[in-house]
Specification:
It contains 7 helices and 4 strands. The chain is mainly alpha-helical. It has one domain (8-241). A two-stranded antiparallel ribbon has the order 1-4. It has a two-stranded antiparallel ribbon with strand order 2-3. A hairpin with a 2-residue loop joins β2 (19-20) and β3. The radius of gyration is 22 Å and the shape is globular.
């Protein structure tokens, strides 16, 4: 019995073909889910704060809790209070990745965070933005970030290239971590779901495993959004304080 290719779920499909010159700018299923994520986030924040009250209602409470979590647990704890001006960016990044991860768990949906081009674009924005912030704030002193303090000068010949390399691979490690975790989890879900249909009544065990994997994937979806955001805050702390 033929089983579905577990990688088929990651196929990019053109919904609205758009070609500008020699560039394929088609509106795809990935772009659709990104649009849905943006609309849902924007709609939730606007509707939950539209009639803000001193005693918050249910949705206002959720919105404020999310705001406080990003402001205190992510920014203040990892980048310092002087990083508060960048709260809108970190909040948008965290909620966008979180909702993208969770939307991918909806049957017949699409996980845009399982594509390296999407996660790398997000990581590249973080990398370039943090670098610009560091240079704008410190000028040439920003280069001191690559020179460890208290190290004998002879060791700097070895350590400085290592620090430079570790800095410039940040967008790769940041993007690969998110993409690999989401792709691996969704692949396992489809594989065990295939066992359920192929084994019939004997597929109870694979079904139980699949249910457990769904619960695990919800946890991974939240955790990976948190890791991406917290690393962004740590990179921001480096740029602001030259740690």
């Amino acid at each position: 019995m033929a089983t579905e290719n577990p990688l088929h779920q990651f196929t990019i499909e053109r919904l609205i073909p758009i070609h500008i010159g020699g560039i394929d700018a088609s509106y795809t299923n990935s772009a659709l889910l990104m649009s849905v994520a943006v609309v849902l986030i924007t709609g939730f924040v606007l509707l939950s704060t539209r009639n803000a009250a001193l005693v918050p209602g249910r949705w206002q409470s959720v919105s404020e809790m999310l705001y406080e979590f990003v402001a205190h647990n992510l920014i203040d704890s990892n980048a310092g209070h002087d990083a508060r001006p960048y709260l809108p960016f970190v909040f948008s990044l965290f909620t966008f990745i979180l909702l993208g991860n969770l939307l991918g768990l909806v049957p017949y949906s699409f996980t845009f965070t399982s594509h390296i081009i999407v996660t790398f674009a997000l990581a590249a924005v973080v990398f370039v933005g943090v670098t610009i912030i560091g240079i704008a704030k410190h000028g040439f002193r920003f280069l001191s970030l690559f020179v460890p303090h208290g190290v004998p000068p002879v060791l700097l010949l070895l350590l400085v290239p290592i620090e430079v390399l570790s800095y410039f691979i940040r967008p790769f490690t940041l993007s690969i971590r998110l993409f690999a975790n989401m792709m691996a989890g969704h692949t396992m879900l489809v594989i065990f779901a295939g066992f359920v249909t192929a084994l019939g009544l004997a597929g109870v065990l694979p079904l139980a495993v699949d249910v457990a994997l769904v619960l695990l994937e919800v946890l991974v979806a939240v955790l990976q959004a948190y890791v991406f955001a917290i690393l962004t805050c740590l990179y921001l702390a480096d740029a602001l304080h030259l740690h």
